[in-house]
Request: fold
Amino acid sequence: MHLAKQFRRVVVSGASLFFLMAVPAAAYSETVAGGGQHYALPPVWLVLPFFVLLLMIATGPLFYSRFWEHHYQKVSITLGTMVSLWYSFGMENGLLLLEHTLEEYLSFIALLSSLFIVAGGILIRIGRRGSPMVNGLLLLSGAVLANLVGTTGASMLLIRPYLRINEGRLKPFHIVFFIFIVSNIGGALTPIGDPPLFLGFLRGVPFFWVLGHLWLPWLVSVVVLCLILMGLDAMAGKSESKLPVSGGIQLSGARNFLYLGLLICSVFLDPVVIEGFPSLRKLFHLPFGIREVIMAVIAVAAYKTADREALKGNEFNFEPIREVAFLFAGIFFTMLPALQIIGAYAQEHAGQFSVTRFYWFTGLLSGVLDNAPTYLNFLAGALGKFGLDAGNTADVRLFAQGIPSVVAGDASSQLYLLAISVASVFFGALTYIGNAPNFMVRNIAAQTEADVPDFVEYVFRYSIPVLLPVFGVLWYIMFNI
Reply:
């Protein structure tokens, strides 16, 4: 009965959000706060370009593949431009929001592109054929590695050797579980692992808070998914590949690990982290900072000095990052109205939100929106519930330390932060657009002519029947309040 009651609460909350999307934004709020500046909310119909883009990403490769393959760049840029024009000429302070979105996009694509290029120059050959045990251990190792070099770095380092060792027996679930474990859930133990956690660190969440509080859901989810993978893998049969078996690991392009280390260090070159660090944005009003310039220099240097045999062995080309760059340019700008409306709703109704609602709303929206701003919106809402300000570092630290709720039977602030952190990272695996590495892994696998699930198959055959039960058990054990 208690479980059914909680489920009804989630359904009612979801229904209220969808009802909200069907009425004019002015009916519930006129402005939304962001960085000390109040912005007018957009009309609700402006979310349509975002839904059109999502629909075309899901159906294009399936129903009109030739058109989509040749014109997805134009579709993405056109829809993004439509929203940008409205913000430029139809909204007060709209240009400031567009400038902020451009800065976020450039930071996002600078990190992804540089990691993609650097990792592309590192060739790892594993002298074992794919088997349930080998694949399970490889993905478990990838989950650990993701916390050191980010989910993008770990994905780009391991996806090619993972595909090679499974040559002749590769099934769609091999690619899907790689995305689940290495490209998403694996990076939940450090702020380096996934962008939402890094943004939380920049806002004031202590660096090691994540490891101390997320290790249990991380361990449970990774182990359970590895066991499911190994079970499916056992049913897939033995490899038909004639690859030589040496039992060892061969490495080419090792110098690129130096570039990789420099990239990880450059992530922290931010005025928020290092007090007094110069900002090109403030000094010259540029939409990027010194960090992004350094990342670009590292990427160019890594490519120019890369081991040519390593690049050839990885069949390196720029198509995966090109697809991500164009599609996410459209996603970043078309999702701006949806993020504003959802953020306003979350902050205004935070007092009515339980841990359960924060967990499911943050998670489900992170699966279809960029999980980093989704995390920030719900973090701001949760802080407001406790009378704290998301723009105040001291308040965020106090929130992470734990504040008892004034409502009888409610959870402390730590549990709210834990629910938002877990949901924003884990649920990024729900769709190909939930996290950028998902798209790159899909593209790299497709170039090897692997049987890659389309968008709809990915969601309905794998995400819903595999991930949602795991996330539901986590909710029932940890966040059922």
